[in-house]
Amino acid sequence: MPEVPGQLLMGNEAIARGALxxxxxxxxxxxxNPSSEIIETLAKEAKNHRLYVEWSINEKVALEAAxxxxxxxxxxxxxxxxxxxxxxxxxxxxxxxxGTGAGLVLVTCDDPSGIxxxxxxxxxxxxxxxxxxLLEPSSPQEALEMTRYAFDLSEAIHNLVVLRSVSRLSHxxxxxxxxxxxxxxxxxxxxxxxxxxxxxxxxxxxxxxxKLQRAAEAGAQSPFNRxxxxxxPELMIVTCxxxxxxxxxxxxxxxxxxxxxxxxxxxxxPLPVGWLxxxxxxxxxxxxxxxxxxFLEAGVKEWAAxxxxxTGTRVFYGKDSGHIxxxxxxxxxxxxxxxxxxxxxxxxxxxxxxxxxxxxRVQELVPPREFGFCPGCPHRATFWAIKxxxxxxxxxxxxxxxxGCYTMARYAGGFYQLRTLHCMGTGAGLxxxxGKLGQF
Length: 440
What we know:
Blueprint: E1 6-10, H1 11-21, E2 26-29, H2 36-45, E3 52-55, H3 59-71, E4 76-81, H4 82-98, E5 104-110, H5 125-130, E6 134-135, H6 140-157, E7 161-166, H7 167-171, E8 173-177, H8 201-220, E9 226-228, E10 235-239, H9 243-253, E11 260-264, E12 267-269, H10 273-280, E13 285-289, H11 295-311, E14 315-317, H12 332-343, H13 352-365, H14 378-393, E15 399-400, E16 418-420, H15 426-435
Parallel strand pairs: 2-3, 2-4, 4-5, 5-7, 6-7, 10-11, 10-13, 13-14, 15-16
Antiparallel strand pairs: 1-8, 6-12, 9-11
Helix pairs in contact: 1-2, 1-6, 3-4, 8-10, 9-12
């Protein structure tokens, strides 16, 4: 990356830049959109920054390799998409007990609406499951700065820190103000007087919660917490990540700046209650905007119930109330829909006549097209051969699927051969089960 004060960076490139500015020496990941460009960007810079970068065999191995570097005193990064967090979860729930050495950050890039995934799983729950700090940037600029901050936080509490991006953030671009790249001379040193294991479990568990409390205190001082709006809003939007931009745009379009406040948390677990409480006391109505599940919503509700006797009751709007769906990514229009319902406003996104003209024109100019293989992809020929082989065999055989580009075989480009599609390795597992059914 060139040494200039401002650079047009994709969100994933900004995360990579933040890691370089934090002085990482080790990066490992497993490919899968929307996370792939982080490792690709770091790989291009590896020789210039004495950095080791690898695509690991899976996400668990990637995090284990990065953790080993951390144990040896080198800052390290592990990257994956939301599905990969499941693969790494066994190690994560034990790593949080053993703690870490140098800064260690896990970046998960979630995929609301399942744009390039088999599901739209919300990976944030791993932070609550494993009692780890969770950071959610709202822009490429913030992704850069928050990645840098995550390494400092990791070293302050000696534990893994999770940073969550989403598809739109990972693949949007922004002119980012970059910082200085560290000039380092990495030398791994394993201190033989230290141990990184989970025993005694109860004592380690207690220490883990002490670390989480320190993270909450740090989160209350975080520069990534923001509030915009009146001192006593009629309604307060509580949001995080990309929801910050969607919410502010919706408030601006509806001209509600004097009625509605927008509050953004940079750390969504543990809740930075020291910073959050004064703002929540300002409003009796709260609307939660987040992607995908009501993670922040549930956390704030639980905490609000604890302090309710002191601060009074509140009305909550969000996914559980039906004002925001439990599925798909958010947009400014979806925030507008929720605001108009709650505040009883009349707002029309577009004139019906204009919308009809646009729809007709789009149909004329853009013919419908299924997903398909890239030109020249050998998978197309493979599935043509499979289709003919099954036909010649004549025993009504079927193809059990796996994750990868060959998932396009569920469309015309692969002759509709794929009959199952779930997760990594499932094609072999399901075929194994089907193969046992011959006795019936």
